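Protocol step 4 of 6: structure prediction from sequence.
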Amino acid sequence: MVVTQCPLCGSESLEERRGEYQATAPANTPGGPMVIPNATWHHCAHCGEELLPRPLTKALESEQRRRLSAAVPVTS
């Protein structure tokens, strides 16, 4: 993902970040923050906006689905 300018503030202070990405889980998702290891994303040093590439977005969605399916009680 080649990005040169922040879409939120217009600053050209985007930094590529690599490592463990942490996101606050939605209110209906149990388990605390969602952590994705070995991730890559862009962060605007000026306004704090984060631009997530599709693979990271997919990993977060997958983790949310996993948590929600594990939280569903089994009834017999």
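Step 5 (inspection) to follow. The chain has a mean pLDDT of 90.
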